[in-house]
Design a protein that fits this description.
Elements (H helix, E strand, L loop, with lengths): L2 H8 L11 H4 L6 E5 L9 H8 L1 H14 L4 E7 L3 H13 L6 E6 L2 E2 L4 H9 L14 E5 H11 L6 E8 L5 E6 L4 H5 L10 E5 L21 E6 L3 H6 L3 H11 L5 H4 L2 H4 L6 H8 L20 H6 L6 H14 L22 E2 H7 L20 E5 L9 E2 L6 E2 L4 E4 L9 E2 L4 E7 L2 E6 L1
Parallel strand pairs: 1-2, 1-5, 2-3, 6-9
Antiparallel strand pairs: 4-10, 6-7, 8-9, 11-17, 12-14, 13-16, 14-15, 16-17
Helix pairs in contact: 1-7, 3-5, 4-7, 10-15, 13-15
């Protein structure tokens, strides 16, 4: 079985973000393969710890992926501030005798350094075209946990667990490995909080992660962390604004200072996205939707709303308003050129992570979340059939079947983009439908 088949069989997807199936990404041919170890979201601590704890496995998985796509160079992107981790990686790259192929690329401590297109530019100087993907400029990007999973796939192990960070206004900040399909409430209680009536949970990082409506749900392969804050925290209030509320405030208050555009990471890479124009468009009636097509270029980093706007408006919401309208009409933005160059002021407008953390009120919680042994003995998991880009997995088990950890329980539909899913605990299938396969231990 070759690497592509091993990765496909293991059900590997991007460990974070949208969860693009890794076997499809590695079917490309590229000049560079880049490892995204930036972990730019404040408070999350998975990638940096994995690179320190499993350097050999990550380097081997990363190198194998690079050879698969025939990349001339494999660049491991990590923020320069992580000096101890960098030292470990440098030593292991030499010990594994891959220094002629794998090298470390230092990233600035800025937000959003982990945005795929920002990462590509920082490590290669190339700008991914509008509505494009890195392969268009000869790059394939994977993150550190994905590289680790590739190594395990080479050893015949499927993706059954994921690493995540618990952070925020909590007694116990930690990073743990849990089975895919674990009830989220069980994970949240590892924070030392039992009653969440006074708290709100952000699913993922504090910038891009959505506010959860409750504490229901289950961990997926993409889960990277939960940020737990008091309900009255300003960040929670800002992220909880309704569409209508943000639209009304934007219409009445925007003074067109264009700071949202001038700080936008994609605009600074030379793209046409200009959120201040979407704010302006809210106040004027126009039937010409094509001129609002640039709303589709937003990367959803939320920098415009949570940092750039000096009076706390909602530029991202304005972008999303027109983006959704265009989607309903079946309209898609068409770039007017193929080659892009970063704008001159970019270097002066990079946002230091510490400034961002202070602005969004998280400075008191910007503390270590050390890797810990997970004390959970999960009794039942609900494994989503769709936790990736593409079609849902098709069940290959039924209620009453006995399954073992690592056994395939869902396969990719024929002629579709997707990812297989596997049992994360040994037990009996108790549910098979409604988007989940449930397994009870024992």
């Amino acid at each position: 079985m070759n690497l592509l088949e091993q990765v496909k069989e293991a059900g590997i997807v991007g460990a974070g973000g949208a969860g693009f199936p890794t076997h499809a990404k590695l079917a490309s041919k590229a000049e560079y393969i880049l490892l995204n170890g930036a972990e730019c979201e404040p408070l999350l601590r998975v990638d940096q710890q994995l690179m320190a704890l499993f350097p050999d496995e990550i380097i081997k998985g990363f190198e194998a992926a690079g050879r698969q796509v025939e990349a001339k160079k494999a660049i491991l992107g990590i923020k320069g501030k992580h000096k101890d981790v960098i030292h470990i990686l440098e030593e292991r790259i030499k010990a594994l005798h891959v220094e002629d192929y794998v090298e470390i690329g230092l990233l600035p401590d800025i937000y959003p350094a982990g945005d795929e297109q920002v990462l590509v530019y920082e490590l290669t100087g190339r700008v991914v075209p509008e509505v494009g993907i890195p392969i268009q400029v000869g790059c394939v990007v994977i993150n550190s946990e994905t590289a680790l999973n590739i190594y395990y796939a080479m050893e015949g192990k499927a993706v059954t667990e994921t690493y995540l960070t618990l952070a925020g206004d909590i007694p116990q900040r930690l990073t743990v490995k849990v089975p895919v399909g674990t009830p989220i409430i069980d994970v949240l209680k590892l924070s030392g909080i039992e009653n969440f009536d006074d708290y709100t949970v952000i699913d993922g990082g504090p910038m891009m992660g959505p506010v959860m409506a409750g504490t229901d749900g289950y961990v997926t392969k993409k889960t990277k962390g939960f940020v737990i804050l008091k309900k009255h925290h300003l960040l929670i209030q800002r992220k909880s604004a309704s569409k209508e509320q943000s639209k009304r405030i934007n219409r009445a208050t925007c003074e067109q200072c264009r700071m949202c555009t001038d700080m936008c990471p994609r605009y600074l890479l030379g793209h046409a996205t200009q959120p201040h124009k979407m704010m302006r468009a809210l106040g004027y009636k126009s039937d010409n939707l094509e001129e609002k097509g640039i709303a589709q270029l937003c990367c959803q980093c939320n920098l415009c709303e949570l940092f750039a706007c000096p009076i706390g408006l909602y530029p991202k919401a304005a972008n999303n308003y027109f983006r959704d309208m265009l989607l309903e009409k079946g309209m898609r933005y068409k770039p007017t050129k193929d080659v892009f160059e970063a704008r001159g002021p970019r270097e002066m407008r990079k946002l230091p992570s510490k400034r961002l953390i202070a602005r969004i009120g998280l400075r008191d919680f910007d503390k270590p979340a050390p890797m810990a042994e997970c004390p959970l003995q999960v009794q039942e998991v609900h494994i989503a059939t769709r936790q990736h880009v593409g079609a849902p997995a098709e069940a290959v088990v039924q209620v009453g079947d006995r399954v073992e950890v690592g056994q395939k329980i869902g396969q990719i539909p024929a002629d579709s983009l997707g990812a297989a899913i596997h049992a994360s605990i040994s037990g009996t299938v108790t549910e098979c439908g409604n988007g989940y396969i449930a397994i009870r231990r024992g």
